[in-house]
Amino acid sequence: MTEQLNFQNIMQQLRKTADPVALMRSFIVQSGGHWADHSDNRLFEINFLGVAGVGIGADAAVQNWLANAEQLQFDVETAA
Predict the structure, then answer these.
(1) What is the pTM of this model?
(2) Are 59 and 48 in contact (CB under 8 A)?
(3) Residue-wise pLDDT tens for the chain (80 aa)?
């Protein structure tokens, strides 16, 4: 259950922060992952906590990651 609460906490923080890209970057780097710092808009992919997010630029990828994480959480809750 702690893992689920942590996942929910991360999603909540990403929804509320003024800079979700910087926050997601810190989550990934702190967990030992790699973050490619690009200043231009190119295809960007995030894979964090088993959820993928992709978009043109880091901001779009973070928003896609959040949408996918919310959908995954909804699917898990409705299956229970």
Answers:
(1) 0.84
(2) no
(3) 456 668 889 999 999 999 999 999 999 999 999 998 877 789 999 999 999 999 999 999 999 999 999 998 765 555 45
